[in-house]
Design a protein that fits this description.
single chain; 306 residues; alpha+beta; Jelly Rolls; Phage tail protein beta-alpha-beta fold; three-stranded mixed beta sheet; 19 strands; 28% helix; Ferrdict_sens_TM; FecR family protein; FecR_N; FecR
């Protein structure tokens, strides 16, 4: 997810909360502070408001510019309809037009014409070009893939994922594009990586590195039990923030997720689950964490409970 898309996502969540009938004066004040953080924040919120107005389902919320208390009420059906329309219009997955795609819950092996083998996690999309100026190129739009790259020194294999750039001639590694971060886990050989600011680094087998907000982070020992768990049919979470957990789950189910408050975003999850049973994760979250999950058609609303 780009920084712009991430801002729009946050703006949608603020607007849903402000129109839910459950927003407190503190929530409205926090939304106003978020809007005033930067011109980009204000623009994202204005764009979301315009779309809501076009939907004709709800009025543009005065709550964003005035902190007036509202009586608590149940979630109105027109608002739920508007939320679903927003999701349909705005959350069309990136890379829907890509050469290679998997559906949510689908894990598939793909053999490229250069002999490389890719294993794709659910809800993954990428483009493949066999020869671009003497290079083999992959553009990963979303999702996660394990790459077994066929050796060819004369034709480097280049992967672009967000702001991350990965260059190899033949090796095995996993690339996970999750929200505004990219995680590279190298299991064989070595990989050259760089970011948009020109930082470069060599990553060896048994190491992993992340890009956060497009910037390369420091090298870490490979946590194969977590980073590669999906290849063994598992989801492994170790003190993972709840938004990241739901991002992982969206690779296994089509339901979209909206957070209604910051407190829910700060909760963390630890556990091991079957990859093909995302409902087990939801049950565990509801049981172990102080959250409320509200299920609407195609949408899951997440809010703190008490």
């Amino acid at each position: 997810m780009t920084a712009e898309a991430d801002l729009r996502s946050q703006a949608r969540e603020w607007l849903v909360l402000l129109n839910s009938g459950q927003a407190s004066a503190a929530d409205r004040a926090a939304a106003e502070r978020w809007r005033q953080t930067s011109a980009e924040h204000a623009s994202a919120l204005a764009e979301v408001e315009r779309l809501w107005a076009l939907l004709g389902q709800v009025e543009r919320p005065a709550a964003i510019v005035q902190a007036m208390p509202r009586p608590k009420r149940r979630w109105p059906l027109p608002l739920a309809t508007a939320a679903c329309l927003l999701l349909a219009l705005w959350l069309t997955p990136p890379g829907w037009h890509a050469d290679v795609r998997t559906q949510a819950g689908e894990v598939r092996e793909v053999r490229l014409d250069d002999g490389s083998v890719l294993q794709l996690n659910g809800a993954t999309s990428l483009d493949w070009n066999a020869n671009v100026d003497g290079e083999r190129r992959v553009r990963l739009y979303r999702g996660q893939a394990d790459f077994q790259v066929a050796a060819d020194v004369a034709h480097p294999f280049i992967i672009e994922a967000g702001e991350a750039r990965i260059r190899v001639t033949g090796t095995r590694f996993d690339v996970n594009l999750l929200g505004n971060q990219v995680l590279l886990a190298v299991s064989e050989g070595h990989v050259q990586v760089s970011d948009a600011d020109g930082r470069e680094r060599a990553v060896q087998a048994g190491e992993q590195v992340a890009w956060l907000g497009g910037r390369l982070q420091s090298l870490q020992p490979l946590d194969a039990a977590r980073a590669l768990a999906w290849q063994r049919g598992r989801l492994v979470f170790r003190d993972r923030p709840l938004p990241e957990v739901f991002e992982e789950l969206q690779r296994q189910q089509t339901q979209q997720v909206l957070f209604l408050d910051a407190a829910a975003r700060e909760l963390k999850v630890t556990g091991v689950f079957a990859l093909n049973d995302p409902q087990a994760v939801l049950r565990a979250i509801e049981t172990a964490l102080p959250v409320k999950l509200t299920r609407l058609p195609g949408v899951l609303l997440v809010s703190s409970d008490g």
